Amino acid sequence: MAGTKTLLVDVAPEKLTLRKYTLRSLDVTGIFGQRLLYVGSDPDNHFVVEDPTVSRVHCKIEADRQGHRIRDLDSKNGTYINGIRVTDAYLPGECRVRVGNTEIQFSLGDESVEVQLATKDRFGRLIGGSLEMREIFALLARIAPTTATVLVEGESGTGKELVAQALHEESTRSDKPFVVFDCSAVPRELVESELFGHMKGSFTGATQNRVGAFEEATGGTLFLDEIGELPMDLQPKLLRVLESREVKPVGSNQRTRVNCRIVAATNRNLEQEVAAGNFREDLYYRLAVIRLQLPALRNRVQDIPLLVRCFVQEMRSQVPESGDFQISYETMAKLKKHPWPGNVRELKNFIERAILLADTGRIETRFISGPRVVASSDVDVDGAIQSVPGETTSVGAMRVDYKLPYKDAKNRLIDEFERVYWTRQLGKSSGNISEAARRGGIHRKSLEYLLKKLDIS
Predict the structure, then answer these.
(1) Distance in angstroms (rounded) separating the CA atoms of residues 449 and 413
(2) Strand, coil or helix: 129
(3) What is the signed CA dihedral for 322, 344, 69, 120, rounded to 10 degrees?
(4) Which of 111, 105, 96 is nearest to 18 (CA)?
(5) Tens digits of per-residue pLDDT, 136-186?
(6) How far apart are CA 106 and CA 113, in angstroms?
(7) Three-state secondary structure along 407-434?
(8) In angstroms, rounded to a whole number, what is the distance separating the alpha carbons of residues 150 and 140?
(9) Which of 287, 265, 289, 261 is nearest to 177 (CA)?
């Protein structure tokens, strides 16, 4: 009897055809063809509405096979279609969308675009079955065999390094080096030497010749993490290397040819950094040949059950004595509602901690770290949050007005927190807005808008 042979066949990606549409407000008009678009007052949104009654991320418009679907994202003042408040609805071909006090005209166009969606729920070590991730996986599968330079943007913990690793492993360079260079982790005076190499005696402490990250990655892939932190005076030198594919070590008169693929990553919005004069425009365009935006975990909560199952299975293989762990419906619902500021990295850390510390065979949300959920015992009769032992800082007594509806009470607390937080950061920065923004990890323009909204001078 003939032996059985297994054939691995790559399944062609699904294709989603969608029509472009126009969004038009009093100040802004845009034609959009992407599958997912965010609307809000934060400058990171695709359609930015400068209106204090509009939430930072107010709503999203997402295309699927049924049409264009708008979802309110727990906004302060709601989302309306032709005067009717909605939380989740499909948009008519022509309609008025109101967010806060701003009215936006939505109009479907005649031109169509095609979006590819991977059929699998993982690419390399990246995991996700949501449309957002499947769209990214389809793009990664197309560009992995090429040598195109890729810029990956996204919040910390979303998996930017995993993207770079996956591109390397799925390319023809997979048997060559994969080198990581973190621009934020190297002292400013050593960045040039670490990137391009140096010659013996070129500076104090240079006791021998050293090759830089570019030469180390020859034939393979160089991952430039936190590229937005690269000092301005070194950006022209990096641009020169990217264009000439030659490096000149510190202290040398000779140039050396290098051959490596570049994948860069940042948690900043480099387009805004260019506009603010913090990043060279020519370098940005050289890096962003392919630009990829990784979604925050809170924007793809449907992936959380899949991620949890994968992390639990991973822990069981590493710690066999951990046994089987049960996750109740209530626990999973709480995990979906958690904001996960640390994204997938934070979720994975939570699963590891919960399995190692749990003694009931059940994963419990009490092991979630981060913003503390206030229990009834922490609140006095006036609704003021009492001081919590062990906290590193106190932001004062935030009072809950139980006479208000839930959303209004919550938004009032958020506004109070923001006012206290940014007042403190400005105090620590001697009123320097740029320094306060860096301390808080947001763009200066975003902070300027927040200060205006909160009436902080």
Answers:
(1) 19
(2) coil
(3) -70
(4) 111
(5) 999 999 999 999 999 999 988 899 999 999 999 999 999 999 999 999 888
(6) 18
(7) HHHHHHHHHHHHHHHHHHHHHHCCCCHH
(8) 10
(9) 261
Is this model's pTM higher than 0.70 or not?
yes
Residue 88 tokens, joined = 């989740």
Residues in the chain: 457
What are residue 374's phi and psi, to 5 degrees?
-80, 125
pLDDT digits (tens, 9 = 90+) for 253-284: 888 899 999 999 998 889 888 988 889 999 99
- The SS3 assignment for 406 reads helix
Helix 406-428 vs helix 444-454: angle between axes, to the nearest 10 degrees? 120
Residue the block writes with tokens 């126009």? 22
Tell me, what's the pLDDT at 316?
A: 78
- Look-up of token digits 């301005």: 232
* Torsion sign (Cα): 186, 187, 192, 196: negative
Confidence (pLDDT) at 8: 40
- Encoding tokens for residue 215? 């030469």
20, 113 contact by CB (below 8 A) = yes
Question: From CA 139, how far away is CA 126, in angstroms rounded?
Answer: 13
**Start-to-end CA span in the chain (Å):** 83
Q: How far apart are CA 186 and CA 229, in angstroms?
A: 10
Q: Which helix (H) or strand (E) holds 310?
A: helix 304-318
Report d(CA 259, CA 216) in Å as an integer: 10
